């Protein structure tokens, strides 16, 4: 058994693999990692434009208000003004339309009265030069870099890619992740549950975790605890970028995963880490596949994923995430912990009355108790080497995945 820090170090050295890239259409690249640097292909705005519906004027004509100006034309968004403004003239203009030459300000329509024949307008309030006037290039200059390789694309960055004319961008490929659930006791949800059986939940949690870290999950289903079926499933699974197995890595008579992986040519880098839950976790590699044997208890396989697999998926996609770098918050109550292990326990995470984040424990009966995590937001990390952590101590926490609508 090795300490968590050591296991994270071993992992870090193995996950900086070169990743292939692919062209991805804009509407499919949310949460993908950009593999190129993107520059603006134009000034923004691309022309001097109006910020308001109103009248483009020469500010010097409107030093005193009210005053009357001759309306020489109307310019809608998408049109181009044909006339230059001279003294005493105004141009009716809509938001986003290019300003005519000679104009240096826009009076919003609410501060004007258009004559009934449309030929003249009364400006009711004076304006300053540059009011409601957006000069070309004010927001962004042509050639300026807007995004760098390694950026994770969000709705705003995707909007900017559209703004600079990119219908497709180069992104790192999503790692393909095969998820095998091992266990003779497992039954798929919806199937009849015989005596001694339980439902396979890990496949579903793991698949959605993979998806939320922009991986591409492949779920062949349940694998029984016998050498033949496990060996066949492993052989197929090793063709993906990452293979996750749940169950079968501990000390039980039918915990065949380490043996089968070794027979399939997987080199084991660690097996058993001083963490609770997920102590029996295994990490191995082939030349092309990273393999994680996650213990079967649902909270164990979740912790194994969040601590080891999540940073792996990020790094495989060109996003350099340091495993084990977590935020901190204050512990709400004194907590006993095992000095020989790093412990992960479910907590709520909320602001206290001074605005600082505080972790408070939820009822938890151990690593089989997935239901306890329904009310938790984070797993507090109780460090190795101490038997209790005092109330108010700063501890790391691993966020539990929250839906965006939360
Ligand atoms: P194992 O790691 O195979 O010894 O399994 C440890 C515990 O986790 C046992 O109680 C299993 O029944 C349970 N378990 C194993 N696989 C799953 C799974 N896919 N979904 C839910 N529970 C599981
Ligand atoms: Mg098992």
Ligands in the model, by name, code or SMILES, are: adenosine monophosphate, magnesium ion
Assign the CATH architecture of the largest domain.
3-Layer(aba) Sandwich
Shape field: elongated
Q: Give the neighbour order of strands across the main sheet.
A: 7-4-6-5-9-8
CATH homologous superfamily designation of the largest domain:
MoaB/Mog-like domain
Number of helices: 6
CATH fold naming of the largest domain: Molybdenum Cofactor Biosythetic Enzyme, Chain A
Number of strands: 28
Ranges where pLDDT stays below 50 over 5 or more residues in a row are none
Structural class: alpha/beta
Query: Which CATH C-level class of the largest domain is it?
Result: Alpha Beta
Helix content: 10-25%
Fraction in beta strands: 25-35%
Major sheet description: 6 strands, mixed
> What would you report as the Rg, rounded to the nearest angstrom?
31 Å
Mean pLDDT equals 96
- The number of domains is 4
Secondary structure layout plus pairing:
Elements: H1 4-14, E1 21-25, E2 38-39, E3 49-50, E4 54-57, E5 67-75, E6 89-93, E7 105-108, E8 112-114, E9 120-123, E10 133-134, E11 145-147, H2 155-163, E12 168-172, E13 176-182, E14 186-187, E15 198-199, H3 202-212, E16 216-223, H4 227-237, E17 242-246, H5 257-263, E18 267-271, E19 275-276, E20 282-285, E21 290-294, H6 298-316, E22 328-331, E23 335-336, E24 342-351, E25 357-361, E26 378-382, E27 388-389, E28 394-399
Parallel strand pairs: 5-6, 13-16, 13-17, 14-15, 17-21, 19-24, 22-25
Antiparallel strand pairs: 1-12, 2-11, 3-10, 4-6, 4-7, 5-9, 8-9, 18-20, 20-21, 22-28, 23-27, 24-25, 24-26, 26-28
This protein binds adenosine monophosphate and magnesium ion.
